[in-house]
Structures are given as structure tokens and as C-alpha cells.
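ok trying this again, last paste got cut off
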Amino acid sequence: MISRFVHIGDCHLHPGPRQEDRLRALDQIVDEGIRLDGLAAWLWPGDLFHQRSTIEDRNALKERVKLMAAVAPVVIV
């Protein structure tokens, strides 16, 4: 069986005009990743948040990480 990894780059979540685009892109990555056969882990070495992130930004990411963790380990560096 082939082990697969999903690598996610910097999100820099924070309020602003591009926030919806960032979350939509992340949702697409998660949706495609959870359908992979043999997903060994999600690798996320980038910045999750910007210094101006809000509680809402962090909660939005929390739900996505929980969904990811239900499928494979999430390694955030």
C-alpha cells in the first residue's frame, strides 16, 4: 500500500478581504485529502495565523483540524 501525505502551506488566517478565499482553498485541500486512499498524515509546516487573527479565525480552523484528525494524524510545525 502506498502512503500518502498532504502538505499544507501557510494560511495566515486573519480578518480581511482574502479570508474567505483562504478558507475555501483550505476546505478544498481537506475535502480532497480525506478521499485519498492510504493517507498517512497531514503535514502543516506553515503559519496558521497572522498576528491579527481573531477567536473566530482560530475556531474556524479548529473544526477543520478536527475533521482532518479523524482521517489521519495532523502534524503542525
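PB: full thing came through this time. The chain has two helices and three strands.
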